[in-house]
Amino acid sequence: MATGSGEAFDYIVVGGGSAGCVVAARLSEDPKSNVLLLEAGGKDDHIFLKMPLAFLKAMPDPRFNWTYWTEEEPHLDGRRMPLPRGRVMGGSGSINGMFAMRGHPLDYDQWGQMGARGWSYADVLPYFRKMEDSWRGESQYHGKGGPVAVRPIDSPFLLHKEMMATAKAAGFDTTDDLAGAKPEGFARGEQTVDAKGRRVSASTAYIKPAMGRPNLAVQSGALARRVVFEGKKCVGVEIDTPAGPTVIRANREVILSGGSYNSPHLLMLSGVGPAEHLKSHGIDVVHDSQGVGRNLQEHPCVSLEWDATQRVTFLNQLRWDKIALNSLRWMLTGSGPMATQVNSCNVVVRTSDKYDRPDLQIMVNPIRFDAQTWFPGIKKEQEHVFWAGLVQLHPESRGWVELKSADPRDVAAVTLNIMAEEADLAQMRDAIRTARRIYRTEPMGSLTGRERTPGAQVESDEELNAFIRATCYVAQHPTSTCAMGMGERSVVDSDLKVIGVEGLRVVDCSVMPTVPGGNTNLPVMMLAEKAADIIKGQSLPRAELAGEHAA
Q1: Domain 154-188+300-392+420-471's class?
Q2: What are the residue boundaries of the structural domains of the chain, listed by start?
Q3: What is the pLDDT of residue 5?
Q4: What is the percent of the chain where pLDDT is above 70?
Q5: Which of 44, 112, 161, 306 is 20 to 30 A from 90 in CA distance terms?
Q6: What's 320-372 look like in SS3?
Q7: What pLDDT score was predicted for residue 26?
């Protein structure tokens, strides 16, 4: 659909990503409210956005990705890092790796302790259950029949049994359910893939089933230039159209769901942010909010690789004839290697007993990072390699998002500031040493040969620090740039209303006080489910929990 000047909606949701799709769909359940969802990207109808394993093709594709980059990172040898973000209906949930994780219960209890009233684990668990259609069935921790399908990563090619046996030999626990009573240990990975083997995003789960509602309008290809204020009251959104900038009015509220880079960027373009920074770009200040764009958090990662002593990695499935047959199998039956992630085991552990929750996630990948397709006699098969992605779950370093200019088409300046804190370097060194110990333990020890990256000779703190700074990347889980629970630097209150103005909320991962200890797609959809209820003036009862999470 196309919108024009003078149109008005009760609610305008800016950003059709994992949060915006949920909020728009839930608000449109009330036939008395009319809702407009604006998305700068296009439709999510490409096969790369449906076939689970094709995310490796979708994520770097500029048709679906904003292709952001950081500024020069001051603690990573001045490197600039790519920041893939979804520019398509469904947002980053349409191009991500589909990992289904919630984080640890203490992550949400910490939010509540920081002052984010109503966001402790007992408050959010009912919304995780509401949104979920779990392969496990309904229980205290899981939901059945919700819009978001969660299924196990299950394939005979992924060496899951070997990794679980290694856990016990290396002195680590295993768990049947990281989202259940035992939220740490070695576990089977889970993914947002439905019973037909198709990716589940917020677009497929929420917006597409709601498209027949006459009170829901969805416009793709709509770049928001700014939110419009009359005094301190937000009254609409200005978007780009072929005919020029057009203002669409909101009778009740505008809801920003652009994510941790675009939501603070749009706030600052609109006059809400650090006053001196806005003035330096010639922007009139509507409200001086020092926290906008600050407190940026991400999960730092490093990769370790080992030679495989046997030809047992997923590289076997990348032979051209097998890819063709498995793609056909996926199209006909929704099953096979193309319907899943390439992950042996989801490892969520503590590197030290001093931590009250896991500080390390290991993405156990039975394939090399630079794997390529091959065919005998035509294109040579690569060497078989095991790759482990080490994810630091609770970094202390904080980054920032700033304006480059007052031009809405000029993307934000993002500095992650990764490894600014010595504690983060020390924790990542511990992570490397922990992963080395795991991969040298039987039965994985017999399958792993020479350490390729960083190499067994890299041992001292100084050598490991240099390796981390030279190779560190991030998990694409940015949060907290419009955070609640930050005291005087809070950008939104616990109802996600932007402090200091009226008629404006932020609903996305930018409002999280801290980054959860895991992949963030499920947490942001949970957050949006709860936000929609807050906007509608209702709430699910808190979960009844025993023990440490009962408060």
Answers
A1: alpha beta
A2: 1-53+83-148+198-296+399-413+478-551, 154-188+300-392+420-471
A3: 53
A4: 98
A5: 112
A6: HHHHHHHHHHHHHHCCCHHHCCCCCEEEEECCCCCCCCCCEEEEEECCCCCCC
A7: 98
